[in-house]
Amino acid sequence: MNAFSGFGPAIAAARSGYGAVSMAVASGRVQLVTIRQESLSLARWRLLWVALGFVFVALLALVRIGYLGASDNGARGTSLEEALLPPRGEISDRNGVPLARAFPAYALWFNPTALGEDGAPLVRDPAVVAGKLKDIFPDLDQAAVTAQLAAGKQGYIRRRVLPEDANRVQDIGELALEMPMENDRHYPQGSMAAHVLGYVAADGTGRVGMEQVLDAHLSDPATRGTPIALSIDSRVQGALEDELRRGMKLVQAQGGAGIVLDVDTGEVLALASLPEFDPNKIDARGQKLMFNRVTNQVYELGSTFKPLSVAAAIDAGVVRNLGRRWDASPVKVGRFAIKDSHPMGPDLNVVEALIHSSNTVTARLADELGPERMRRTMIDLGMNERPYIELPAKGFPIWPGKKWPRLRSMTVGYGHGIAVTPLHLASAYAAMVNGGIWRPATLRKLGPGEAPKGRRVFKASTSSRMRQLLRAIAVYGTGKNADAPGYRVGGKTGSAEKPGGSAGYRKTALVSTFAAAFPMDRPRYVVIAMLDEPRGTLASSYQRTAAWNAAPIVKRLVPRIGPLIGVRPDDTRDVDISDLKPLIPEANK
């Protein structure tokens, strides 16, 4: 036997095992190749699907481009101004103080699906959530909000939310109370000058005031970047509203109106109609208060017309001698009789007639002037048409018509039988004291040399005489309670019964007006203060007439606004009325 014969089987076995390993290796290589091929095939399919996706998107884009081209409704280009500027231009007062501007604000929106459509919209009870919101917003209608939350009715709960209040709302922890950012119209001065400014409606268009008048300029990207300056002085506006409001409360008047007007340019420095509305929050109450008493409501303004009639008579030569005595007894025209409010003696001169506000003397003076000349004067003063101002709400006067009978001319002479707005009166007084030139009122700030030329109504000499007479009324007559020391105020009261009732007028309902100008040695501003239906109270010495309620408003207002607009008190200056004093018994006591 060979020595190595015992290893034969082992070698054979080893060879057999090596063959098996070789076969296994070969099999693994085949599997790897198969996996690689499958991976490559999958990658190709994925790449194909991605490519098909891109092709699909490209086809959609081409279809969209083709549609837009065919429909002629392509995308509109956006200018840099439109992209960067606020959505609406700014309105400022004459000194640059913002009155209306775009305001990035939060809104409080209730989204009942914030937690999903299957569950309750709120984590807490609706009444509890509404109570927490009431703590943040004291003027919130808690019952209405509770009902909205309980009903799951989506919508605004509040607009114009300040950032600090928005943070407090977030702290409540209700996801359904969302706080989206919005571009809103904001009026930094609140309700001040509301009837001048108006407001912006939900559709983005201006309503009522200068927001409506200037809507195109404020919304056009080409112009809205330039703020528009109004003639209003916010300091004067605030003082006028404050004093009117105080005057209303003292006599429980149902409304008030006031205006401060530059006599040389027609610029309105302040215009107030009370009660006012808040343009930041237009609600049902605000809608009711948008009626403008200064430009839209017409009134019989009573005795404030008497100086205008005297000016017309002086201008026409009817009054040449102020010392002439006029019959002061009742005037009978047909079945009508014109009387004074109280006996003033058998006769009066023109100065006394104005100081004591005589209806009878003014009626006789107007009668001698004649209907045609009286009517012509009123037309020249713009009393026969809507007031000249930019505001959209302008009332048409109650105008007697073309042919004035004798009685109508006489009643118009002392402010009855014709109804105009307080703005009509302000413009007429400006013409009477500025040298005789009537100019339209404006709410736009005018630059040097931009004042309209206007039209002459009175002679310069007549205007000079009227400045003396108006000052005499404030020193010795019914305007005493308007005489602010150092400001040389002149003016005239007017207390007229409102139309209505069986007798044609309501005896218990008055319109009390004081029409003034200052300083009378060089008039610069006209001030009108009017109270609608004042009531006699202890604070007004039980008087409902203008001498006791409207005149004091002017006395308080003028010292507040005078230094702000270039008129300082000066006791060393005044208009010279020395030639009138011999005609005034009160001046010689």
General description of the model:
- By secondary structure, the chain is α+β, with helices and mostly antiparallel strands.
- It contains 19 helices and 19 strands.
- It has helices at residues 8-71, 80-84, 126-136, 142-151, 163-172, 194-197, 210-213, 215-219, 234-251, 284-288, 306-316, 350-356, 359-369, 371-380, 406-413, 422-433, 460-476, 546-549, 551-561; strands at 91-92, 98-110, 155-161, 177-178, 181-186, 199-200, 206-207, 228-229, 255-262, 268-274, 326-327, 331-333, 336-338, 347-348, 437-438, 455-456, 490-499, 505-518, 525-532.
- The strands form 6 sheets. Strands 1, 2, 3, 4, 5 and 8 form a 6-stranded mixed beta sheet that branches. Strands 10-9-19-18-17 form a 5-stranded antiparallel beta sheet, sandwiched between helices. A two-stranded antiparallel ribbon has the order 6-7.
- Strand 1 and strand 2 form a beta hairpin.
- Helix 9 packs antiparallel against helix 19 (551-561).
- The chain is elongated and about 135 Å long.
- The protein starts with 7 loop residues before the first helix and ends in a 28-residue tail after the last helix.
- Residues 10-14 and 71-76 have low confidence and may be disordered.
Offer a concise description of the structure.
With 589 residues, this protein is of the alpha+beta class. 39% of the residues lie in helices and 16% in strands.
